[in-house]
Design a protein that fits this description.
Layout lengths: L11 E6 L9 H9 L2 E4 L1 H4 L9 E4 L7 H8 L5 E6 L7 H9 L4 E4 L4 H9 L7 E4 L17 E5 L5 H11 L6 E6 L7 E6 L12 E6 L29 H11 L6 E5 L5 H8 L5 E6 L2 H13 L6 E4 L4 H12 L10 E4 L8 H8 L5 E6 L2 H14 L2 E5 L2 E6 L2 E6 L3 E7 L15
Parallel strand pairs: 1-4, 1-5, 2-3, 2-4, 6-7, 11-12, 11-14, 12-13, 14-15
Antiparallel strand pairs: 7-10, 8-9, 8-10, 15-19, 16-19, 17-18
Length: 435
């Protein structure tokens, strides 16, 4: 007699629920919750369920993400339902569950998200409205989205978030922006308050809120565009700064794409890594800087310019690079993965630096190095002869007063080498060797 087949566990039902609670759920969502032997969710969400949902109720601990595999394993033999706020796959627990179990193991039953409700109340087209979540994330990340005339929805972490957002808008030159805080969207207790960021005086209200922002810049606000080449005045620096026009050309050679990782070696003020990350919300970067004061300055610049997720490593290269590579191999820090691009802005003559950067680079990745010294230029010329790529001289002149007239003042020319690492992997040849 053949053994009975082992049946796979039933799919985990992921049920979106709004502030309107049980009454706002579809028939299918109610059935999934009634049939569940275990219901996992936030304490507030669990309180919305009626007694007819007889399954064991388990509240998520804090921090939530590390607890996901443990709780799923503990109850794997039971029918599980997981509660999520609104749409589980929009900044919700659905992502973590899909990563843990695989999409095929889930039955997702979405509910209108707070963003859909907010756009409906405001009359804003959803496709034209940018959404920034501040739940479990620094408020500083809102800064990268501030542009005149833009409409933003910020998902609040709690009741104190609106006041913090108002302060950030004001400090970044967007004090005239109109703010509306929409609370308990979809419930009978739905309410909102509004005001202007620079004069925001509302006391904290309900913790379940979304902030609608009509971006308006003050007349003296520094204009920060959406493409690389921010004004030099946007950065705090001690002179170690890749200047605006060179920076724009450098980012063009690095060619960031969504989801890619950059190693910025010799970070200085962090401008290359910061503007790499500003090109897309999913871009990541690690800035390596040996000077602790400059490393701290990089972190401040990143926070100010809306990319607080920039990783700053304090230490000399290439030894710091080997440490990053070891962490990548051990998967101890997912953010410090194999780089898609490497920029070398300083320290080119340090023994082994260029080779270490090349070895760390992903096949098909890009390496860009800038220098103003003859010694480093000679090194780049050798590598160019050996390996190809593009060797470019970048020269910029600025108009300045000359007595009662105007003339050109030439900045120091920058030599730039950019090259793509072959795929499959290849070792960087010894200079002069074309084999």
């Amino acid at each position: 007699m053949s053994p009975s087949p082992v049946l796979p566990p039933p799919p985990v039902s992921v049920v979106g629920i709004g502030a309107d609670g049980w009454s706002g759920l579809s028939g299918g969502a109610r059935e999934a919750l009634r049939e569940a032997e275990v219901v996992i969710g936030g304490a507030r969400q669990l309180d919305l369920l009626p007694p007819e949902c007889a399954g064991v109720r388990v509240a998520w601990p804090s921090p939530l993400r590390p607890a996901v595999p443990r709780l799923l394993a503990e109850h794997r033999e039971r029918r599980i339902a997981v509660l999520a706020s609104g749409d589980p796959m929009f900044y919700g627990i659905g992502r973590a569950l899909a990563e843990e179990l695989g999409p095929e193991a889930l039955r997702v039953l979405p509910h209108p998200s707070s963003v859909s409700y907010a756009c409906a109340r405001l009359g804003w087209p959803l496709e034209d409205t940018e959404v920034v979540t501040l739940v479990g994330r620094p408020v500083a990340r809102l800064a990268v989205s501030l542009h005149e005339g833009r409409r933003l929805l910020a998902l609040s972490a709690d009741a104190s978030t609106p006041a913090t957002v108002a302060a950030l808008l004001t400090s970044h030159g967007f004090g005239p922006s109109r703010m509306r805080v929409l609370e308990q969207l979809g419930s009978e207790a739905e309410a909102y308050v509004e005001g202007v960021a620079e004069s925001w005086t509302h006391a904290p209200g309900d913790g379940l809120n979304v902030i609608a922002i009509d971006c308006r810049a003050s007349q003296d606000a520094l204009r920060l565009g959406a493409v690389p080449g921010l004004p030099d005045e946007a950065y705090e620096h001690d002179g170690q700064l890749t200047k605006r026009h060179i920076r724009a050309a450098t980012l063009g050679a690095l060619a960031p794409a969504p989801g890619e990782l950059l190693w910025d070696v010799g970070g200085g003020s962090g401008s290359i890594a910061i503007e790499w990350m500003r090109t897309h919300a999913s871009c990541r970067a690690v800035s390596v800087e040996r000077d602790p004061a400059r490393a701290a300055r990089i972190a401040r610049n990143a926070d100010r310019l809306g990319v607080p997720g920039l990783k700053v490593v304090t230490g000399p290269a290439p030894s710091s690079l080997s440490e990053l590579s070891e962490l990548s191999e051990l998967s101890e820090l997912s953010e410090l993965d194999v780089p898609d691009a490497v920029f070398i802005g300083g320290g080119l003559t340090a023994p082994g630096l260029l080779d270490a950067c090349w070895e760390a680079l992903r096949p098909g990745g890009r390496l860009v190095a800038n220098t103003v010294t003859l010694e480093s230029e000679a090194l780049l010329a050798e590598r160019y002869r050996a390996y190809g790529g593009e060797l470019t001289r970048l020269a910029v002149a600025h108009a300045v007063p000359v007595g009662g007239f105007t003339g050109w003042r030439q900045a120091m020319p920058v030599t730039q080498w950019s090259v793509r690492k072959p795929s499959p992997p290849a070792s960087l040849p010894v200079p002069g060797d074309r084999t």
